[in-house]
Design brief:
By secondary structure, the chain is an alpha/beta fold. The chain is 33% helix and 23% strand. It is built from 10 helices and 16 strands. Strand 8, helix 6 and strand 9 form a beta-alpha-beta unit. Helix 3 crosses helix 4 and helix 8 packs across helix 10. The longest helix is centred in the middle third of the chain and has 17 residues. It is globular and about 75 Å long. The chain starts with a helix and ends with a strand. About 4% of the residues have low confidence.
């Protein structure tokens, strides 16, 4: 008998009350198909519109009742971004030009909590404000693990006790120690754990801080994680600015990228010490000016002059000749190449000075 025939027989027998649908229930008690169907809600035709529409914490950027994945290369500023956002949510501040409703926030600092302490102090000094009372930073002697049912239950209980609506888990890798990230079978239970945390927020938002792989603009690890979240936000760095871009949104069209910068803040000396400490806070910044003409010339040059790829130095030398501008700066060409790469108009291989830029060949 085939597996399909076995399932059909099980369903038929269940209807007669003598067997169970395979895999149900977990507690071993008989469950009829009707009892399963009783948990369903049916919407017919226009009745679908009776369902609650998507609501937003920040329009286009942070959907409510959702899982959001924030990721970047190391050193770009994802923890600065996550903490700044969390403090703005807790204080009812502003984000992407929108006034926020103040709500309880839980920040699980599973990675370098002392850094977050100093960043929070810098945030308070910059905005001339005390830290919001409904902001809770959780430091644990052992980072809670998303693979541990008891740890997940403890986080959910903390959320319920504090009525938290916005949760930050920083970072995914520190909260999944030993996990085979590239395995979908290992990652799927973690996605379910994240969903449990989301449900505990009673319609709130869970922001998961993660890393990008060594190459590419997708989150590191299995696609099960990417498929399990509602939105992904990629941070990238160019010169002194940090660019935030929605790469995936299940709720609609991605908004335009937004830019930030790290602003230095002098922290007061510790008790008994004389030297001040250095701190920083992430603040909004104007979008960098794009040299559309230069970028267009680079795209054309990559296809016609460098179909097999070229370094930035090659582009600079060729552009100086082509434009008859020996003073064309290396950094200006570099910014244009970075912008084109992030917009998917050219691709790269290699790192640092060895990076080569290639034209995108249409299939």
């Amino acid at each position: 008998m085939s597996d399909l025939d076995s399932i059909r027989n099980a369903i038929t027998n269940t209807a007669e009350g003598s067997a169970l649908v395979p895999g149900m229930p977990l507690d071993g008690k008989p469950t009829a198909i009707e009892e399963v169907q009783a948990t369903w809600t049916r919407y017919v035709g226009d009745e679908i519109l009776k369902m609650k529409p998507r609501k937003w914490l920040v329009g286009g950027w942070l959907p409510l009742d959702s899982l959001v994945l924030l990721y970047s290369d190391p050193g770009v500023g994802k923890s600065f971004y996550a903490l700044s956002l969390a403090l703005q949510v807790a204080s009812g501040g502003e984000w992407v030009g929108e006034n926020l409703e103040a709500m309880p926030v839980l920040y699980v600092a599973a990675e370098r909590p002392t850094d977050q302490r100093d960043r929070a102090e810098a945030w308070g000094l910059h905005f001339e404000s005390g830290l919001p009372e409904n902001f809770v930073l959780l430091e644990a002697t052992r980072p809670p693990q998303l693979t541990n049912a008891l740890d997940v239950a403890a986080i959910c209980e903390e959320i319920r006790q504090t009525q938290t609506r916005f949760v930050v888990l920083d970072t995914y890798s520190r909260m999944t120690l030993g996990l085979e990230e590239n395995s979908s079978s290992a990652t799927s239970p973690v996605v379910e754990a994240l969903d449990q945390i989301r449900r505990a927020t009673n319609g709130g938002t869970v922001l998961v801080v993660h890393h990008a792989p060594k190459s590419g603009n997708t989150p590191r690890g299995s696609t099960a994680l990417l498929g399990g979240v509602d939105m992904t936000i990629l941070l990238s760095k160019s010169d002194t600015q940090v660019k935030a871009k929605v790469e995936k949104s299940n709720a609609g069209r991605e908004p335009s990228p937004v830019f930030y910068r790290l602003e230095s803040v002098t922290l007061p000396p510790e008790p008994g010490e004389e030297a001040c400490r250095d701190g920083a806070v992430m603040v909004a910044a104007a979008a960098p000016k794009q040299d559309v003409a230069l970028e267009g010339l680079i795209v054309t040059m990559s296809r016609e002059s460098f179909p097999n790829g070229a370094t930035r130095r090659d582009f600079v030398a060729s552009l100086r000749l082509d434009l008859e501008n020996p003073k064309l700066s290396d950094s200006k060409v570099g910014r244009a190449l970075t912008s084109l790469h992030r917009d998917g108009q050219i691709r790269t291989e290699g790192k640092a000075k060895a990076t080569r830029y290639f034209p995108i060949v249409s299939p």
